[in-house]
Fold this protein.
Amino acid sequence: MAKILSVLYPDPVGGYPPAYARDEIPTITGYPGGQTTPTPEAIDFTPGELLGCVSGELGLRRFLEDRGHTYVVTSDKEGPDSVLERELPDTDVVISQPFWPAYLTAERIGRAPRLKMAVTAGIGSDHVDLPSAIAHGMTVAEVTFSNSISVSEHAVMQILTLVHDFVPAHDWVTTKQGWNIADSVSRAYDLEGMQVGVLGSGRIGQAVLRRLKPFAVTLHYCDVHRLPSDVEEELGLTWHPDVRSLASVVDVLSIHTPLHPQTQNLFDDELLGAMKRGAYIVNTARALIVDRDAVVRALNSGQLAGYAGDVWYPQPPPPDHPWRTMPHEAMTPHVSGSTLSAQARYSAGVREILECWFDGRPIRSEYLIVDGGGLAGTGARSYTVAG
Ligand code: NAD
């Protein structure tokens, strides 16, 4: 029998379950391109419930305990006395979410002799040290596509929020109880007519491009895999062979690559300085793709007109993280991929992965990041490992 450890974000401060705003969520059975949504044998939750926090347990307890496994759920993940550290030595499977990541460092993996699989309830497995996972013979899997559309909607929202300068205008009528039109519009523009680009045109990046097309903008992208020419034509896309070429022409840049050796610290002072003065960046991919302090410098100097996103490092960030107080930001906590709609899909996807694992059936290749001693599936297409 196996021990499964889920590291999930804490319950709402108002108690669990929360009062839900809606009674149901739309039923989605497939994604663009034909991939189906998760197909576990059964689920033990009602779609639309809060599943990603400790009391939500990803809806997995009955399933796991009926099969005789031990299921431990915690949000306590930092420090030598944390539940994660204490449970890890005899855990077989760690499940974690990028919103509240269990950082599976080389050191932690080295102290977990039974650890066979790390599952991301969501997308993005950079919180696992992939070279160590490969050396340890582990499988790393994630629920590819489960929250890609959720993130693309959030990115479009944050692009409009920055360009229209929504946050200060909202503050004027609420916190400041004013009606300051001139102050509210002094940095407000239309997106229409702008040059807009995505770095990474995978599932999320392409969904962002499709959603932006009706805004009458000119669309650009950079990806190591060029899109089919009919897609380029349909969306009127200009492909850029490298990030510098893309960054230097756009007014708005949305980042959608995984974090891996090729993308770490890509946006430093030099690359930010090569962008147009007054460009905007939205980053819902991973914080370490940009240089934290270079972003703050670029906002203070006016080189960037705005920065938004939902990804930080570390997560949760300390109270004095400079992005909490930098100017012209529209930041959220890491929430874009954890809407109640997304939670239903990634919880079902985790269950599908576990059913396959326990029953000795292959996990869908699109869910695999590491398997069989190397990058596999989506991991082989979208990630690299150093060395
Ligand atoms: P995907 O695998 O479908 O697409 C990633 C794309 O990035 C691929 O097309 C790949 O070729 C491209 N790419 C990789 N390295 C590149 C490089 N150096 N230069 C240019 N292109 C490169 O993944 P996805 O579903 O679109 O997700 C992308 C990332 O978004 C995830 O890895 C994750 O880090 C992040 N994400 C964030 C949230 C959130 O809640 N904020 C949720 C889901 C995913």
